[in-house]
Amino acid sequence: MSHHLQCPGCAACALSASAADLSEMITAADRNAGAGNEMARLLTGGGKSVPEPGRKLDIKNGPYKRLVIRGTTVIDGTGAPPNGPMDIVIEQDRISEVRTVGHPGLPINPGARPQAGEHEIDAEGMYVLPGFVDAHAHIGFPQQGRHGALAPADYIYKLWLAHGITTIREVGSMNGLEWTLEQRAQSAAGEIAAPSIEAYALFPISDAIALTPEEARKWVHDVADAGACGIKFLATHPDTMKAALETAQELGIRTCCHHSQMSVARMNVLHTASWGLNSMEHWYGLPEALFDDRTVQDYPTTYNYQDEQDRFAEAGRLWMQAAEPGSPRWNEVRDRLLELDFTIVPTFGIYEASRDEMRARRQDWHDEYTWPSVWQFYQPNRNAHGSFWFYWTTQHENNWRRNYQRWMQFINEYKNHGGRVCAGSDSGFIYNLYGFGFIRELELLQEAGFHPLEAVRAATLKSAELLGIEHEAGTVERGKRADLVITPENPLENTKSLYGTGAIRLNDETRQAERVGGVQWTIRGGIVHDAKQLLADVREMVSEARAA
User: Fold this and answer.
1) What is the number of other CB atoms lying within 10 angstroms of the CB of residue 110?
2) Distance between CA atoms of 168 and 181, rounded to whole angstroms?
3) How far, in whole angstroms, is CA 26 from its chain's centroid?
């Protein structure tokens, strides 16, 4: 048996044990843990290393029989420009009315307003957006437990909610599909303070539990019966993956894939998209589809995939080996993916440290918001996934900067030609923190060429479409689930204002720099969460964890 199916930038594939270690770890129980739980048993040591689940809420602020948000400016998620002032009426967990109540600069006519509610929010001068959908999220990662106490789920949930994230696509359910589905049910019932959870099962990737095509078909049926919303793939035999994708299509469950470098020579995104794959994560498999003067990546002869600095360093040269922008091959691949209605979730933010490690390490929020074991997990370590800073050089960073330029160009063109691009953070790795990393993703989409409204749409409507919940979420519309973000600053003018740490602005009256913004309230399913209080809770949790 060999274990070689890790891939950079993906949580689920971070099985960093040696082949001998895995031989001892994998037991009959691992093989028979239940569909969707196999890899979790490996990653968690048989379920021993999972986050503390979300705590039951003692007090809930909603849903209310009638909640009215007054006088706000609405950014509705469709790409339409801001509009206001408007009043929004929420009955229980649904938006029942979105009403224009005046014009900017003029007093609001009381007669134009909806009747009073059981509870009201004065949002005059503020902005309302649809709740954000993080299309690539993980509720922690077991390997962080090697460095101290795992962060509890509440810590992660509160960081997400504090940044306006009301839905996550949990790609892999590394704590186990069963564990994740329990959290999903509790969130849906409003029993815990958490986003809505779309749970994707992780397709078995270890050689020890590799599946044949027939076994794969049965496995897909089993995870669908268990309640999985979708499946996350990494690396497997092409025949097996094709069989699994075909079965998923038949059953109507969704699929995504991080195309591992250990398998991409046999199947890039053109292959998997043609077999029915719904979305690709990150960018692996796309440059390989764009090769026009080679068939494999230009690996140095001394390359070793198990050495993560090798892996990430060479990944930083990959886009420059692909076809030139505007070339026949470039256009051919773009147009074929468009034809297949394929979705790309680039997760720009998870690789950003590769082009500026110092910036990533010194981000404002680490001091107060990064959990101790998560921080230790980020540090250079040959036995921790994504902690590959063994001797990261100026040349590595320059390579990655050039990588980003071409990668972003393709993503922006894909969007401009009608392709679906979604916002996902993959937070919890490589100095990328939950919540904060998602807001950074919105900034990076704009660096790629997206208008701020397009970035918001990628984070709301487009991600809702990817999850198949666009009739429930993704826009501020009558009949939709009451998932909303209320913020005092205009996020189109300055996306940095959405960070929990706010944006720095000079106060011309005091002549002092001050922090402004941050989300004020996040409404998830009609339940109102005070984002500032959530952040205060997180700071206290981190402080206590550091003192322990």
Assistant:
1) 8
2) 13
3) 29
Give me the pLDDT at residue 48, please: 62
pLDDT in tens, 145-171: 888 999 999 999 999 999 999 999 999
pLDDT reported for residue 50: 86
Nearest of 355, 293, 351 to residue 327 by alpha carbon: 293
Tell me whether strands 254-257 and 230-233 are parallel, antiparallel or unpaired: parallel
Beta strands in 392-520 (DSSP E): 420-421, 484-487, 503-507, 512-516
d(CA 186, CA 171): 18
DSSP string, 448-460: TT--HHHHHHHHT
Q: Which residues of 43-52 are buried (b: 16+ CB within 10 A; e: fewer)?
A: bbeebebbbe
For 353, half-sphere exposure in the C-beta direction (CA atoms, 13 angstrom radius) is: 26
**Positive or negative torsion for Cα 492, 494, 497, 499:** positive
The stretches in the chain having pLDDT less than 50 are 1-32
| Nearby residues of 284 by Cβ (< 8 Å), 6 or more positions away | 7, 8, 9, 258, 259, 260, 261, 264, 315
Nearest-angstrom CA–CA distance, 167 and 203: 22
Q: What confidence score (pLDDT) does residue 226 get? A: 95
The DSSP secondary structure of 182-227, one letter per residue, reads: HHHHHHHTTSBS--EEEEEEEPP-SGGG---HHHHHHHHHHHHHHT
List all residues 6 or more positions away from 369 whose beta carbon is below 8 Å from its beta carbon: 159, 433, 436, 500, 535, 538, 539, 542
pLDDT tens by residue, 394-447: 999 999 999 999 999 999 999 999 999 999 999 999 999 999 999 999 999 999
Please count the residues of the chain.
Answer: 548
Domains of the chain: 19-55+131-467 (3.20.20.140), 64-130+481-547 (2.30.40.10)
Q: Which of 400, 411, 487 is nearest to 446 (CA)?
A: 411
Q: Mark residue 296 as left, alpha or beta (left: phi above 0; alpha: psi -120 to 50; beta: remaining).
A: beta
Run of H or E including 70: strand 64-74
CA distance 201 to 36: 5
**Cα separations in angstroms, 59 against 158, 197, 332, 482, 485:** 15, 21, 55, 19, 21
Asked if 250 contacts 216 with a C-beta cutoff of 8 angstroms, the reply is no
Closest-CA residue to 139 (of 85, 94, 181): 181
The verdict on pTM exceeding 0.85 is yes
Task: Tell me 65's DSSP state.
Answer: E
Measured on CA atoms in the order 328, 330, 336, 339, is the torsion positive or negative? negative
Report the pLDDT value the prediction gives residue 206, as an integer from 0 to 100.
66
Pairing of strands 64-74, 83-92: antiparallel
